[in-house]
Amino acid sequence: MTGSEAYPLGYSEAEARRLAEQAADLEDLTENLFRRAGLARGMNVPDVGCGLGDVSFFAARLVGENGSVLGIDRAPSSVETAPRRAEYHGVTHATFVEADLTTFRPDRAFDAIVGWLVLLYVPDAPSALRRLSRAVRPGGITAFQEYDMSQAAQEPESQLFKQVHRWILE
Known about the structure:
By secondary structure, the protein is of the alpha/beta class. The protein is built from six helices and five strands, in the order ααβαβαββαβα. The protein has one domain: Rossmann fold (3-Layer(aba) Sandwich). The chain is 42% helix and 19% strand. Helix 5 (125-133) links the parallel strand 4 and strand 5 (136-145). The longest helix has 25 residues, at 13-37. The radius of gyration is 16 Å and the shape is globular.
């Protein structure tokens, strides 16, 4: 999948704003997850499915300027925008590359690998995670923040909710 097919919500400016707002809403939770997972100063970390870079910026704060973050995304528009946003946010130790995480083959080992709300869009997430984890040094960290939509509920349940829930799970 490429282009607009790759991400079902598309790559519009409105979607970019929505993602930035969502990242801001979940910032404390995401940073807490990364801290508890063990992200620390000096680490070198890829952020797979980085989008416009918000989670890369969170990780960059945790690894500090002696560490680095490599944002990876399959959307050329995201990879073009993320460095400008990094500059705006004062993040100097994050770089961004265009690559599909299902085929990405890093040329070096990392201390950790992170992702945020990306596995939902990967056809075979377990295989992708197994392959990506080979790029993490022994004793390193793999930390992904994802939703488990199978547990979503509404009380009382409506027909609309049931239909939308079914679409999401499909």
